Amino acid sequence: MEMDEIVEIVRGFDGALVVIPEVGSVFPELAWGDAFFYFAPDGVMPERTQPYGTIITKDYPDDERSDLEPPGRFRVNIQVDRGRAAELTATPVDPAEADAFAPHPAYGAAGWVCVVNPGHRTADMVVELLRAAHDAARARAQRRER
Q: Is the whole-model pTM more than 0.90?
């Protein structure tokens, strides 16, 4: 599964906003080329809401264990609940292993999971989890509106 495929799937979710900062944009240079997924039916990136999923295409400072520097490598990060995260990551894996669920290097304790280069073992579950994260973000937004 390629990054572009995942981005197109998420763009198909009702009310989804996918932000992909471009070179020279107002976003920090470190974020250029990465993707950030929000529930934002108005098409405006929320100011006080974290994305429910991201795709990063390079190592970040203090986050190099996924080894994203080789060409073609990327990591999908998804917010799930802590229980589900524990189920998905019950079997420890090398954080650089492709097509395997691992706790997010920084946010794993908060219920985030990640997959480097999703493939035949994880692609369907990645899509399912992104859909569930999107639906949870929608429910949070609706509660805030009340």
A: yes
